[in-house]
Design goal:
By secondary structure, the chain is an alpha+beta fold. Helix 1 runs parallel beside helix 7, helix 3 (132-149) crosses helix 4 and helix 6 packs parallel to helix 7.
Length: 752
């Protein structure tokens, strides 16, 4: 959501005294397990987090006893007060992804295994504002850039405003777009949502309609339902059901924003906001489901959540926002901060967890599949991911594939997480071939009692991170084709990049048709960071839809830590040459006449990209929106009110001998319950004077679908006159229906 600031809100002395008596009271490990404690979260206060606007170092956040935070940015050189985990965000946008690879590499080095959030409310026109296809494409680019530098990174997808039917439909469209574009399910480590309770009515308060998706019925929550616990819970269950339906149940679910956005003056006073936080926190700590929950977390529905926010006390400049926990002017804790701390502090339990986070085998030269023994340097990073220091010395062993000890080292304790890592290094003569392996064992003598003993082993073998960046279809003229081409010679070109830090040899690209091998081509030896196009000539003799794919195959024994980026698939339409049939009574199109045909769209501003309706003739309530359009930045919006008629038209003149073809993209969003057609949009052709010639199509509230659709009609028999292309919408007195139009084409083809 939008992030803004305001002033300190005073709280009653009584409340401060009551809550203050709870803050700072940390408990010992011997106490009974608190609610929400599992092997995954032995100290459940770490499930709680917050978003911060003004820089976390400006506040003393230690008394809040939280476990994580975000600042809606990459968070390079992040601060970790009291061991707070810092989430790293990469924003998506309609203009495309702008990745700073050097920054990603630096973050991966300083925070291995870190949490990355791709997008912030991508389904919201005031935030990242992308279509499902745009998100799928940009997510893939971000995911593999992050994994290329840190295969252990946890990459989170989603961050939709709220998991309503409409926005879960948008998320399903993302899932489907990824599969259609790349031929594989979307790789996701963590699912991420926001969980606000906002209406989804265009032009009104709330979060509007998600870009590029007009499917399920929009939520019409009343203003007073912003803190409805039942709706809050329904959202979470719906998201977990969506995950289960898409084979994603065994993934964590996090909430990176939730809270009360509305100001005190709107009725959301201190007691009401505090009550909402306490109710939701208690429910999140204990809510489990044996069929929907995350099995690794004892079936808890949600693993972590962030309150919005630490320091936004004047959201959207609307007045005092009680939900802000710290005052940005005085840097002091507010009443909501006291409530937060009173909830989290009793949940804290000290624990330690030793992890080998990274093992590198640095070669002095050659390729990953070297056939000769080679001296290498083994380097392993050991972390303590617990909230308490390790005070007992422990031993780290490095072994080879046969269990022979290469190196043994004692580590004399470690600070709590983010307090510093231990590095264990050893020289080794790596054997020839690809049958070698290095195994790092942490705390082999079990000297340290840990929350998780299962992550003390890390192995590394021959590996190469190859990235199949793109699969292009190129025609005989060298032009890259998007989704269709013509019968004849084509070229399939797979762009391969070596993301490893070492050279690579012996890889191959397999070109597939409908899953069957067409051809295999060798990948030339690649230096670290280098890329190459691997091509194969493909001659197509039949019209049809072809499922084509490319897949990388590494040398035997060589693994890829990020194998999800080794495959790309897509559908490609092969068509015949385009022809123009003779028009009835169009003598210059008759057989034997020489010359070509020129086709053009005779409408002015057909996609509304001017951002205005100056080239059209609209009635007063017709408008444009700049989110969720079929293409470009703007589209037409009709049906903006009740008991109204909207119209918009443009006048064109068409010569008698021309052919005339109409096409347009449309979407319908309604809150009409059905089953009757009550609100309509008629697509009409009228005379220049406005008399109806033909109703081409009538859409109504029953045509509300899960996306944009297109319609196309031959109107050649209406050539030879001046015409009005006329769109006429009618809404009845209840339950509004919105009609959207985009990319209107009135194609006239004439002899040159």
């Amino acid at each position: 959501m939008m992030k803004n600031h305001w002033r300190l809100w005073r709280v009653s002395l009584l409340l401060v005294l009551i809550l203050g008596s709870l803050v700072g009271t940390r408990v010992s490990a011997a106490d009974a397990l608190p609610p929400g404690a599992t092997a995954l979260y032995p100290s459940p206060n770490e499930r709680f987090g917050f978003g911060v606007l003004d820089g976390i170092d400006n506040y003393d956040v230690v008394p809040l006893d939280a476990g994580w935070y975000q600042n809606w940015g990459p968070n390079e050189d992040a601060s970790h007060p009291d061991g707070l985990l810092a989430a790293h965000s990469i924003r998506v946008s309609p203009g495309g992804l702008r990745l700073n690879l050097a920054q990603i590499a630096a973050i991966a080095e300083e925070d291995p295994g870190g949490l990355w959030l791709v997008g912030n409310e991508p389904d919201m026109f005031k935030q990242d504002n992308v279509t499902p296809t745009q998100y799928a494409q940009q997510y893939r680019e971000a995911y593999f850039a992050i994994k290329g530098f840190d295969p252990s990174a946890q990459v989170a997808a989603g961050a939709i405003v709220q998991p309503t039917p409409l926005r879960l439909g948008w998320l399903s469209a993302v899932w489907d777009a990824y599969q259609a574009s790349f031929g594989r399910p979307m790789p996701v480590d963590v699912w991420n949502i926001h969980n606000y309770i906002l209406q989804e009515v265009p032009g009104e308060w709330g979060c509007g309609i998600p870009p590029g998706y007009y499917g399920e019925r929009a939520a019409t929550y009343p203003f007073n339902s912003h803190d409805d616990l039942t709706i809050f819970q329904q959202h979470i269950l719906a998201m977990r059901q969506w995950m289960a339906d898409h084979g994603q149940r065994e993934k964590p679910l996090i909430i990176t924003e939730y809270g009360i956005l509305f100001p005190e003056s709107s009725g959301y006073d201190t007691a009401r906001v505090q009550n909402f936080f306490i109710q939701t926190a208690n429910w999140l700590l204990t809510a489990t489901d044996p069929s929907l929950g995350y099995p690794a977390d004892e079936d808890h529905l949600v693993q972590r959540w962030m309150w919005y926010s630490l320091d936004d006390t004047n959201f959207a400049d609307a007045g005092n926002t009680i939900a802000g926990m710290m005052d940005p002017a005085t840097r002091q804790m507010r009443a909501m901060g006291q409530t937060f701390a009173a909830m989290t502090t009793p949940l804290r339990r000290p624990y330690v967890n030793l992890v080998a986070t990274r093992v590198t085998v640095q070669e002095s030269g050659g390729v990953a599949a070297a056939d000769a023994a080679q001296p290498v340097q083994i380097r392993s990073t050991i972390q303590n991911r617990g909230n308490a220091p390790v005070t007992t010395p422990f031993r780290v062993l490095i072994q080879d594939q046969a269990g022979t000890v290469i190196h043994s080292q004692t580590v004399n304790g470690m600070p709590m997480r983010y307090g510093g890592n231990a590095v264990v290094e050893a020289a080794w003569l790596r054997p020839a071939g690809n049958g070698w392996k290095v195994v790092v064992l942490v705390d082999t003598g079990n000297a340290v009692s840990e929350s998780d003993e299962g992550d003390n082993r890390f192995s590394a073998g021959p590996a190469a991170d190859l990235y199949l960046k793109s699969l292009a279809v190129i025609d005989a003229s060298g032009r890259r084709l998007a989704s269709q081409g013509l019968i004849g010679p084509l070229t399939l070109a797979a762009t391969v990049k070596n993301l490893s830090s070492t050279p690579l040899a012996g890889a191959r690209v397999q070109f597939l048709l409908a899953g069957q091998l067409l051809q295999e081509r060798a990948v030339p030896d690649l230096a670290a960071g280098a890329g190459v196009d691997v091509a194969w000539d493909w001659t197509v003799s039949k019209v049809g839809m072809y499922n084509i794919a490319a897949e990388l195959v590494l040398s035997p024994g060589v693994s890829d830590p990020v194998s999800e980026n080794n495959y790309l698939g897509r559908d490609f339409l092969v068509a015949a040459q385009r022809t123009y049939l003779p028009a009835i009574n169009g003598s210059q199109f008759q057989s034997g006449q020489s010359g070509g045909v020129e086709c053009r769209n005779v409408l002015v501003d057909p996609g509304f990209e001017s951002g205005a309706l100056g080239n059209w003739n609209p009635s007063p309530f017709v408008g444009l929106i700049n989110s969720g359009c079929f293409a470009g930045g703007y589209c037409l919006w009709m049906g903006r009110g009740l008991s109204i008629e909207d119209s918009v038209y443009q006048v064109v003149s068409v010569r008698p001998e021309a052919t005339l073809h109409l096409s347009y993209a449309w979407a319908v969003v309604t809150i009409e319950p059905g089953p009757a057609a009550r609100d309509t949009l008629a697509v009409e052709v009228r005379t220049g004077a406005g008399h109806l010639l033909r109703t081409v199509e009538t859409l109504d509230n029953l045509d509300a679908h899960a996306s944009w659709y297109t319609s196309s009609f031959d109107l050649s028999d209406l050539a030879g006159q001046t015409l009005q292309l006329y769109f006429h919408a009618r809404n009845d007195a209840v339950n509004q229906t919105n009609f959207f139009l985009d990319e209107i084409v009135l194609e006239v083809c004439e002899k040159r």
